[in-house]
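Input.
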Amino acid sequence: QLQASGGGSVQAGDSLRLSCSASGYTFSKHPMGWFRRAPQKEREFVASISGSGASTTYIDPVKGRFTISRDNAKNTVYLEMNSLKFEDTAVYYCARGVVAGSTYRYDSWGQGTLVTVSS
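Output.
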């Protein structure tokens, strides 16, 4: 089970930290990802982190502004979002990953947390 939290309404340029608490499986054995779905758009990948936390990946629009991290002792993955922009407005979802060759496949999803950025 995945439980995302931390969303809210902020002004452009502000920061937010999203959290995703996991339970029911061995957290450290799975990579984790954050996705988002903006209004009237398809869901898109935002960032991922390996099980150990040593490897991270980001989409270009968030590089340098967002940081994904995890605390395996707390079974929690985070998404630190700085310098938020209007176009970051979306429902953010965390997801559990499974290694599939050179990439990750996601097999379990949280309920989403809404981030609204006002310009």
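The mean pLDDT is 97.
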